[in-house]
Design goal:
The complex is a heterodimer of chains A (572) and B (170).
Chain A lengths: L2 H17 L2 E6 L2 H6 L1 H14 L6 E6 L11 E5 L5 E3 L4 H12 L15 H4 L17 H6 L4 H9 L2 H11 L11 H10 L6 E6 L8 H8 L1 H15 L3 E6 L4 H17 L14 E6 L9 H8 L23 E5 H13 L1 H5 L2 E2 L2 E2 L1 E8 L5 E6 L4 H8 L9 E6 L5 E4 L9 H6 L8 E6 L4 H15 L5 H19 L6 H15 L3 H5 L2 H9 L1 H10 L14 H18 L4
Parallel strand pairs in A: 1-2, 5-6, 5-8, 6-7, 11-15
Antiparallel strand pairs in A: 1-3, 3-4, 9-10, 11-12, 13-14, 13-15
Helix pairs in contact in A: 3-4, 7-11, 7-14, 8-9, 8-11, 10-11, 10-12, 11-14, 18-19, 18-22, 19-20, 20-22, 22-23
Chain B lengths: L2 H10 L2 H11 L7 H12 L4 H11 L3 H10 L11 E6 L2 H5 L2 H12 L5 E2 L5 E6 L11 E3 L2 E3 L4 H18 L1
Parallel strand pairs in B: 1-3
Antiparallel strand pairs in B: 1-4, 2-3, 4-5
Helix pairs in contact in B: 2-3, 3-4, 4-5, 7-8
Chain lengths: 572, 170
């Protein structure tokens, strides 16, 4: 396919879309599917067939729209009116909606989400711009929304150096957690020498409580592929790998379809869009190891080995897959690339704050009214994310902490609700941006218990290669367990803190060095809770059992019983 | 049963063809080990020692390396799984919303520990680090079907219905 043919196809798609008088977009993301959206699609399609399948009507099963707790979601698009979104639809209600339209009556108001719902209004969708609007398994719909136009532009108008410069100018930083400048990374790989080069997309989203990458891969797989192809051109790679977490079979299947369609269309494969650039993408399915999110471990896993990290340098940019220069970026990072070139690096850089540019996708969940997937400009205060977009805590409950960055991150207390959410500010608070899980906790959550939960995760997921992480996480977990069951001794808190710093400073990879973060951050902001567990043997949130006595109390009790038996002359 | 005999059993197994075909497609590259193990587990349900030895021989890898990879990743199991599976997500969002109670209830009522299979081989109960459906927290999957938000009693009822349903069929 040539660039002109691509533009022609895009225009044709758009004309066809505009010709429809009514489009019903049914969200078919995993949460909506679980709520029954498949039946809604089937009922609507049957109704359409019964009424003679009018050409001006269309039902589309789309990717994730965002407010996942309200599914199944149906978006109504009518010519000349703003989109209407209906929540919690069942097949009957959906058919009633279609009936009302066919009878030229006004559409029902029941289950209709208000037009100015802050959940949608406060978001700025760059990465997710076509999520929930297109059928992820139909490449033509992606092209109809301007898809692969950025790739065509890059291939025909720019040199690889200019592409790297463009990404640097956009200020984009790695969305997987590290926050390293994407443009600089691309330049490093571009300058690297090797017989071959590789591009790897990290879709091993292991953080519990985060599912941005899953949604992106499921809802808009072509956006990721387009970003990878642009990266391939920029760094001089002809082969890409996308590493999908084993727990995400639907994402893998949709990517497989997307790669096949893209190769058929000539936007991937040999001589992409009639240029001299060739680029193939293969999928690698993970096998359930959190540590594979670490880049060197991920590369080992792609090469069929145990996913154990190695010492850096050399960085993958110098020596990655099979010793060749390898560019490895997060799936969401690749999701930003096409937008940088369609809107221009300067326009992209105008979004966000400080050194954090662009938007960030968050998985908002936990104790919050509107759970789901959101995309906001960097630097939005936490309060606005939780209270405006998230609608606050259910029943107006008090906010206690927000957890970001998963097992490598930390908890942000209520006193810091006005912190702008960007890389630097979160780091200052002892947390990290991480991949984008944002879990809201209310008064019912015990911070010591939460820290213990994450430490259990880390000890289980530690790959066992380096001692501080392998044994340190177990010891930290033991200390936290003692705090939670009431058997902690006076020095345990002090030892806990020391051990955390030791593990942080001496571990081989990011998993180990970040594992103590949840403990350190809760110790910093919620020290009183730790002390209540230790000295009063009381869990303020009422979560921990506190049913084991510490040694010194046991000894004391024993002594009292011995003394009592002597005084009373009883046999002990 | 002698080792020799087990090998013949494996060689006659029609499922082995699927594994052999996958290895041929991947040109017997040692780098493709994880892909091959995925196929092997899909076909057999679990990875037996004989199967691992067979894969090692075909890919010209030391058996120790194949065993090392198979035991490193949580996805691969060296023991047969139950007829049905129930996996409770214990990711952060689910944990905060009480997935621990669901696991306890299922463990107690169905007489099976998480990560193991019931004595009659009907059900494997498992936990997952995060299934990425945090908006449905606390959630679980029963034979790959997603349910949530779930309660301890609701989860137990669903699993019991499944087990009774399979009894009726047999």
């Amino acid at each position: 396919m040539t660039r002109a043919e691509l533009a022609e196809l895009a225009e044709k798609e758009q004309v066809q879309r505009d010709a429809k008088k009514l489009r019903l977009l049914v969200c078919c993301g995993t949460p909506c599917l679980a709520a029954g959206s498949e039946a809604v699609v089937a009922a609507l399609r049957q109704k359409l067939a019964e009424s003679g399948s009018p050409a001006e009507l269309e039902v589309v099963g789309t990717g994730c729209l965002g407010p996942c707790s309200r599914g199944p979601l149906v978006t109504v698009q009518r010519k000349g009116t703003p989109d209407m979104v209906y929540e919690r639809m069942d097949p009957q209600q959906a058919v009633a909606l279609l009936d009302a339209y066919l009878a030229a009556a006004s559409l029902p108001q029941q289950n209709l989400l208000p037009e100015d719902l802050p959940f949608f209004r406060r978001q700025q969708r760059v990465v997710l711009q076509t999520c929930g609007l297109i059928d992820p398994e139909d490449i033509q719909q992606y092209i109809g929304h301007g898809g692969y136009e950025a790739l065509a532009q890059v291939l025909h108008e720019m040199t690889p150096e200019e592409v790297c410069d463009g990404v640097t100018a956009s200020g984009l930083r790695g969305r997987g957690g590290g926050g390293y400048s994407t443009g600089l990374k691309w330049q490093l790989v571009q300058k690297g020498t090797g017989s071959r080069k590789f591009v790897v997309a990290n879709g091993d989203e292991g953080d519990p409580g985060a599912y941005m990458d899953r949604s992106l891969m499921e809802s808009d797989p072509h956006r990721v592929l387009e970003g990878m192809a642009i990266a391939g051109y920029a760094v001089g790679a002809e082969q890409g790998y996308i590493y999908v977490r084993g727990e995400y079979p639907l994402a893998a299947q949709r990517l497989k379809t997307a790669i096949r369609d893209a190769e058929r269309m000539g936007v991937l494969g040999s001589r992409v869009l009639d240029s001299n650039f060739s680029f193939r993408v293969d999928i690698r399915i993970g096998a359930g190891a959190f540590v594979c999110g670490e880049e060197t471990a991920l590369l080992a896993s792609i090469m069929g080995r145990r996913g154990q990290p190695r010492i850096r340098p050399p960085y993958p940019a110098q020596s990655g897959l099979w010793g060749c220069p390898t560019l490895i970026n997060n799936v969401e990072t690749f999701g930003n690339i096409a937008a940088i070139f369609t809107m221009g690096p300067a326009a992209f850089a105008s979004i966000g704050s400080g050194k954090s540019r662009g938007t960030k996708v968050f998985a908002l969940c936990g104790e919050v009214c509107n759970t789901g997937l959101i995309e906001v400009p960097m630097g939005m205060p936490l309060r606005e994310i939780i209270y405006d977009i998230g609608g606050g805590l259910p029943g107006g409950a008090a906010f206690k902490a927000a957890q970001t960055g998963g097992p490598s991150g930390g908890c942000i207390p209520a006193s810091k609700l006005d912190t702008p959410v960007d890389y630097e500010h979160l780091q200052e608070l002892g947390s990290i941006m991480g991949s984008g899980g944002l879990i809201v906790m209310g008064e019912k959550s015990c911070m010591v218990d939460v820290a213990r939960f994450f430490m259990e995760f880390c000890l289980d997921e530690s790959c066992g290669k380096c001692v501080p992480c392998r044994t340190g996480t177990i010891e930290i977990y033991r200390l936290l367990t003692r705090l939670c069951n009431g058997s902690a001794a006076a020095r345990d808190l002090e030892n806990l803190e020391k051990l955390c710093h030791l593990v942080k400073d001496t571990s081989l990879c990011g998993l180990g060095s970040a594992a103590p973060n949840p403990v350190l951050s809760t110790l910093h902001w919620f020290r009183d809770e730790y002390e209540a567990h230790l000295t009063d043997r009381r869990c303020p949130a009422g979560v921990c059992g506190m049913d084991v006595k510490p040694l010194h109390l046991m000894a004391e009790e024993l002594l009292q019983r011995v003394v009592a038996s002597r005084v009373n002359g009883e046999a002990f | 049963m002698s080792e020799h005999h087990e090998h013949t059993v494996l060689a006659d197994d029609p499922r082995l063809k699927l594994v052999d075909r996958a290895m041929k497609r991947l040109q017997y590259q040692p780098d493709a080990l994880i892909e091959v193990l995925h196929t092997a587990q899909e076909s057999f349900g679990f990875l037996s020692r004989e199967l691992l030895a067979h894969v090692a021989a075909c890919l010209k890898l030391p058996e120790s390396q194949v065993f090392g990879v198979a035991t490193f990743y949580h996805f691969f199991t060296l023991r047969p799984k139950g007829e049905h599976s129930c996996i409770v997500c214990t990711g952060t969002a689910c944990y905060v919303k009480g997935s621990g109670e669901i696991v306890h209830r299922l463990e107690k009522e169905l007489q099976v520990r998480a990560g193991q299979t019931t004595a009659d081989g009907k059900l494997s109960l498992g936990t997952a680090r995060c299934l990425g459906n945090c908006s449905l927290a606390p959630m679980l999957t029963i034979d790959d079907q997603v349910f949530g938000p779930e309660t301890p009693i609701g989860a137990e009822t669903k699993v019991r219905q499944l087990l009774e349903g399979s009894d009726d069929k047999s």
